Amino acid sequence: xxxxxxxxxxxxxxxxxxxxxxxxxxxxxxxxxxxxxxxxxxxxxxxxxxxxxxxxxxxxxxxxxxxxxxxxxxxxxxxxxxxxxxxxxxxxxxxxxxxxxxxxxxxxxxxxxxxxxxxxxxxxxxxxxxxxxxxxxxxxxxxxxxxxxxxxxxxxxxxxxxxxxxxxxxxxxxxxxxxxxxxxxxxxxxxxxxxxxxxxxxxxxxxxxxxxxxxxxxxxxxxxxxxxxxxxxxxxxxxxxxxxxxxxxxxxxxxxxxxxxxxxxxxxx
Length: 269
Prior knowledge:
two-stranded antiparallel sheet; AKR; 11 strands; NAD(P)_OxRdtase_dom_sf
């Protein structure tokens, strides 16, 4: 049965940049299906009602997302590029003042788009430059992690925004202390800090969901017509917290800037 698009309209939230962002987005992080299957799945998502898509240089899904948007435009499922909200992220190998803009231009080239709606710093992490590495954007060697030039990276993000290549800019996986440090010198404050939370929609936050199964993709949009009771929220809040992002395995190294997960999260977890 084909669902009526009007039943699947997702509300927007206003960002401090003056732009609107759909409250529910579809994630395209690994593990991904093959390229053609991913394109087909993303077209299904647009047909169902998704208008916000979250990708990243490191995910390997930017080309498929760009192709899906182009095909839905050709089919008339959407009337203009402005009807979709595209988020992508700067990878750690490009968290250098002079590499941010070239990285964004490569992302736009893969998407075949003129701008992003939102560009995020993927992690507060910088890795050494390896100019001759063909797969540099996919590299994650914790031995190569060096101190994060947060100010230089953020000022380069601001330049991307001023050039019109990103309508809004923000961060991902930043603890509050790091975020407050950016606010001390930012001329364009972050519009978003993307983190993993429980019951996010119930807390008034935007949520990125992920499934490549069409039925579950539909179900993920159906959170709009029901809500958790106070008792259910209380029960969820009693669940002991755990970390889904394995910081120790990915980021902690005796010779690196982060010696523990506690240090990475500025003592917040």
